[in-house]
Amino acid sequence: MSSRVSGAAEVRALRGQIRHWRRGRADLSLVEAIGDAYIAVFATIMLGSMGISVSLNRRNATGVLCSTATCTTARDLMPWLFGGVEVAVCLGVARLFGPMLVSPAVGTWLLSAPVDRNALLLPRFAGTGSAAFLVGGALAAVVGTLAGFSAGTIAAFAISVAAVCLCTVTLTTVVQARGGPAAKVATWLVAGLVWAAVVALVLGVLPSPAPQQRFSPAWLAALVVTGALAVGSAVRAVVDLPRIHRDRLAPGGSLVPSLSGALATLDLALIYDILVSRRWLARSTVRPHRGGPKGAAALVWRDLIRLRRSPQTVVVPVAAVVVPYFGAALGIGEGLVLLIGLTGFLSGLGLCSALRVLSRTPGLMRCLPLERWEVRSATLAVPAVVLVAWGLATGPAVHEAIGGTTWGTAFWVAGALGVASLVAVTRWMTAAPPDYLKPLVSSPMGAVPTSLFGSLARGFDVLLLLCAPLLLAAPATGAFISLVLAAVVLVVLLNRP
Amino acid sequence: MPSKPPLLRVRGLRRRFGDVDVVHDLNLDVRAGTASALTGRNGAGKSTVLRCITGADRPTAGTVELDGVQVDERSPKIRRDLAVVMDDMDFFPDLSVVEHLDLFAQAHGVEDVEAVVDAVLQEVGLVPQSAQLPGTLSSGQRRRLALASAFVRPRRLLVLDEPEQRLDRAGLDWLAERLNAEKAAGLGVLLASHDQALVEAVVDNVVHLG
Fold first, then answer.
1. CA torsion A346→A313→A248→A17, rounded to 10°?
2. Size of interface A-B (CB pairs under 8 A)
3. Considering the entire predicted model, what is its pTM?
4. What CATH number does domain B8-89+153-208 carry, 3.20.110.20, 2.130.10.10, 3.40.50.300, 3.90.550.10?
5. How many angstroms away from the CA of B131 is the closest CA of chain A?
6. Closest CA to A369 of B153, B64, B120
7. Per-residue model confidence as pLDDT tens digits over B93-116
């Protein structure tokens, strides 16, 4: 017992020393940094308030239109679906980072030293669990408020989601120590359950009213079970902490500075690069596929091989087809146009890894004896087929959501939205990173390149441009204008240096 | 009988960064079947010259011609004739070693791709790694893959930036042998190097910078 205590004290002292070294190099305190970033803080609060206000107004405005059983059930189910998505995201993030991780400095200096790993990891475990509990609960409380729950139900809902999020952290920590695919299976299982619930709702096979809207004894029982599971798995995780291998702690720690660097430059595409690279690094070898056509078609052939090698890149857009139908069921009206465009854009990002690599690597582009537009067109061929087909698959949802349209017009609009998603993805993938060689502008955060803040809007800007005609003009005319604009933007993007 | 024009002709090349002339008034010819080397201390401008020649950087002044035609890296013909291996070479994270080489050869329309690629893989010693993804290769193996990418495709001028980097002794011997074979096949070679032995074994014309 005494050696355990002295070991913990020793680790605390060493970690304190590392912290001291780090802080000794900082030229700004946290308070000063927050003070400097006041504009960002105020902007976030203001925009967040506006967003919530718009959501509530929209909810009130469309509430009278939500009279069908499907719409009512969809709205009742929405917070629960959000809770499921939150848990799936929590699982995904926990798996991505470990959830237990150590910084590169701690990994180098302390993990190789004969120190008590439990004392080293316990504060991290407590911090991660608390963060999952608090963030999960806060988000659930916001959703519960937007869903119109009573105060007591909001509290119960927030605590329930928070407890499940805490459970995911403790259980994934146990899996991290013991190995095995349980966390991966659980992520897909939760995501699959949420998806199945949405499909059942859209197909109208979900009993109505489906979800509990009031705190009930059954809910309390479920909460008690979840809480017990969280406590039990937390105890198990604490016992298992010293068993976690170094090779499972270090990757998460090295990922954090990489992602921080990308976020510091607001370069979301760089985050994409880091995550894709990490994913394939973990796989290490593949079964090579040889042969195929010559010229630019060789790039298209490689994209087909990618689909076979990484089917989730096409499974995600296919599964996401249900989102517009869910939007239509919610009765969001013309907001569906933006929802379809955004869903297509986000779900199509995984299809364009070749375009991204060739856009950021001039050395690789030089190896190909093709015009720039030929290379980019070839790498867009497969994503284009998938995203246009994806857009067309949302035709019935468009028909349902936009009143007074013929089936032909609905598919015309849906196809235009598929193309809009494709062009937005192309914009996102081909954009250059912020250029620090160009003149910098002064900001509370220091000197920044003029293109830094604009980089956050990449892809979304084009999406908005191409969706605007569909929102402002008659559906058929709007789709035509959107397609013409998409063609112009695509030609520019294919040829830009 | 007029002498044959050089494969690569560089005249008055200048590259200025701010107030500093990194490269000033450089003239250089590389004839088919010969090798030229740029040597000099770190920062002398060797890589900058290669970047300007290959179109990766824009010179402040001067002309670069390949076979009498101004080099424009956007031109597919220039890219077909110029095989370049520089430090900015990266790879697709999801394609294996052999798939990369197949892709380059197929994009260039090489006949009998598999035979060509297999021979180069054997030569660079990457057969055991052919199914590996580039992210898992050692730095030396990545260098070999980059060099292999230049050898599986048609080319007239080979431009290499410090090709000796991260290669072991056997790799350096192979590289010298391979570059001499390139010369014998009538191709031009331009390299920047710090390796005196490699320069002596391969190069006909040395341009010392700095």
1. -20
2. 120
3. 0.84
4. 3.40.50.300
5. 6
6. B153
7. 999 999 999 999 999 999 999 999
